[in-house]
What does this fold into?
Amino acid sequence: MTVDCIILSAGYSERAKDFKPALDIFGKPLLIRTIESMIHLCEKIIVVGGHNFSKLSTVVQDTPKVQLVKNENFKLGMFSSVRCGIRHIKSDRFFIIPGDQPVVRNHTFRIMLDEKDDIVIPRYKGKKGHPVLFKSNLINEILAYPDTEILRNYIHSKEVKLLDVDDPGIGMDVDTPEDYQRVLNYFENTFAH
It folds into this structure.
């Protein structure tokens, strides 16, 4: 079974007070760290951009397997980026992950792929996180949802497999400067050694 990944990276990064995809995580941009966490498992990684698209394209240029697509409707919110990304899926299954989650372990992606369910969501200490794994036969249903909806509502309408993982990274995103510092500390302690 083939798998692609959609990385959502179209937002304004307002609360982070900086352009999140380019934030430095031990010598590499945050978005590249997110890509590296799953690159060996995916046929293709679709990065969906919007705000500051030219800067985003500079961050991912020359990165293997990456297809950068522009969501012209990114101001409508994250679900519009999901819909933009899934139109480029050619694989049997696909992950969706926000671009600001650079510390998910490769092992988490791997064990999620062992599950056979239509939708697989990782859970750490009772809290759900990202990435979410979908079967591609759901794409038309997702595309039929209005842009004003949110992906969570679609997921809640379906049977999902919750997979308990030993990975706090599934819940660690970078919304604020404090989050960024927490992710840096975690990366240093978990991956840098």
User: Anything to note?
Assistant: The mean pLDDT is 95.
